Amino acid sequence: MSADRIGKWPANSSEARKNREFVKVSRENMLRTIHGENHPVPITFFVSNDLVHMGEIMIPSGGEGSRASEPDCHKGDAVFYVEAGPVTFFLPDTFDTFLVEEGEAMYIPEGTRYQCINYNDKPIKVIFSIAPEI
Fold this sequence. Notes:
The chain is mainly beta. Helix content is 4%, strand content 42%. The strands form 2 sheets. Strands 1-2-3-10-5-8 form a 6-stranded antiparallel sheet, with no helix packed on it. The protein has a 4-stranded antiparallel sheet with strand order 4-9-6-7, with no helix packed on it.
């Protein structure tokens, strides 16, 4: 990614559409970040603008007990596809849990608090798509 694009996350989608901006998204121009204060996990954004956020969450294994993402809640419906798993989705407000196997997906409605938990002995990877303005 060129240095002039740093700090433009999320991208302004109307500006990008006006300029007919097409960008090949490869590993070197994805945005990598760490999300969470109490349960930090690496998140990589493939795309992020006012209409959609898409990326991957990787939750390592090991340590004392299970590893988990920070509880999260956001505007817009979300879909999570388990690329490497299984992953347990925990809804702290209702205490519901859902075991989602590799190759399966989990839909989470807007405004629902959730947490991804790795009870496995290997890292897990979840691809996500969130649509905040749809």
